[in-house]
Amino acid sequence: MNKRWSIGKINDFVEKNSDSKLLSTEFKGFSQKLLFQCSCGNDFEKTFTKFKNNHQRKCDVCQPPKASR
Known about the structure:
69 residues; 3-stranded antiparallel β-sheet; 2 helices; 3 strands; globular
């Protein structure tokens, strides 16, 4: 079964699973970058897939990008 994600469901997921806040107000698809605010106050953009599946739930200052292989 495929779960349908709405902006409300995404906001609930963000609140329950991270210290970040969702600033975006609409969701058009999984390739769209959403705007988040980190617990340190910095704003950052990630796709919901990266936020959810790759645990990239903080800004690049708090959680630096991993070095590429």
